[in-house]
Specification:
Layout: H1 2-10, E1 12-14, H2 15-21, H3 27-39, E2 43-48, E3 54-59, H4 61-64, H5 67-88
């Protein structure tokens, strides 16, 4: 979900840019997650035949349709957090 969130804000990101936005994730895990999202059809990766090679990641149309789900989850999480704080008072 975090990768989709970052791609929804920036539209296109390179691997190193994604890694910078998520310093807690290892390169191996980021690669694994990106491959999984690509296999599910949520993201697209484009390889540019340059030296050095450049790879860019972006959301597919179905990935873009997932953004409202993320926004709804964020709304729910904020309401849940507020309710928890209120119940502890």
């Amino acid at each position: 979900m975090v990768i989709i969130y970052h791609l929804s804000e920036s539209h296109v990101l390179r691997f190193s840019e994604l890694k910078r936005k998520m310093p807690q994730i290892t390169e191996a895990n980021l690669t694994k997650e990106l491959r999984t999202l690509e296999a599910y059809g949520l993201i697209h990766w484009e390889v540019y035949r340059e030296v050095p090679p450049r790879v860019e990641y972006s959301l597919t149309s179905i990935g873009t349709k997932f953004i409202p789900v993320l926004e709804a989850f964020e709304t729910w999480a904020l309401e849940y957090e507020a309710a928890q704080i209120e119940s502890q008072s």
